[in-house]
Amino acid sequence: MKDNKLLLISSGSTFMVDALSNGLKEVGITVEKCEPKIKELEKYKESPNVILFYLGSYIDEIADVLVYLKDMCLEQEKILCTIGDNSEYNVLTKVIPEDFIKENFLRPLNIKNVAEKMQLILSVNDEMQRRKRILLVDDDPTFLTLVKKWLDEEYRVTIVNSGMQAITFLATNEPDLILLDYEMPVTTGPQVLEMIRSEVKTERVPVIFLTGKGDRESVMKVLSLKPNGYLLKTMSKEDILKSIRDFFEANKGK
């Protein structure tokens, strides 16, 4: 069933906010309204998955709310869209990175255009929700960005750059597959795997190690930890995608 619902965050109910809400409803979108307060946002942590944030001059005074919203979007894979002028958007992006924001609509608004665009975003989100979820864990930002770009073509991908961030993510999320860097500082890949396997909630989540070393000794060391497989970081895009497709196909229905 298609999820045609979004969360509209705004401070108070102004004429424009009401007009926007009505415009969204006219194209079949169900609108949940929420004040920009942490206690209010907590109610919508699970759903809806698409957020439309109506900015205002108050944006300077809610840094804690913006941090919470950023974490909520990361941990729950929310799609965030905003409405505001350039100065408000600049304040927002000091806390929430621009790559977290799917679309920013500048005022004055063309409500019909906003409604049509949000309808399209909801449709894309509906398709994305059907995709397999992959958690990609690596301390190399260049590698993270590159591989996420490759995987985004077929999967829903969340990236984290440390073992502890991965554990934090897994406390509230259950991906279909974890791609885990074997060699990381502080908390290594093997330590993360041990923590994953020791928790009832995550013990059955498949883990494939990412390793930069392809010699026999290194590979045997990786496999001795009994992951669900391993991928060499030197593999091409095509080979990585094929390996992941083959993994999901082999484990279909399990």
Number of helices: 10
Poorly predicted runs: none
- In the CATH hierarchy, what is the architecture of the largest domain at level 2? 3-Layer(aba) Sandwich
Going by helix content, strand content and strand pairing, the class is alpha/beta
CATH class of the largest domain: Alpha Beta
Number of domains: 2
- Rg over CA atoms, rounded to whole Å, is 20 Å
Q: How many DSSP E strands? A: 10
Question: For the record, what is the CATH homologous superfamily label of the largest domain?
Answer: Response regulator
Our estimate of the beta-strand percent is 15-25%
Distance between the termini: 24 Å
**Biggest beta sheet attributes:** 5 strands, parallel
Strand order of the biggest β-sheet: 2-1-3-4-5
Task: Give helix and strand order, one letter per element, not per position.
Answer: EHEHEHEHEHEHEHEHEHEH
Specify the oligomeric state: single chain
Q: What fold name goes in the CATH topology slot of the largest domain?
A: Rossmann fold
Task: Identify the overall geometry.
Answer: elongated
Q: How much helix is in the residues?
A: 40-55%
Mean pLDDT: 90
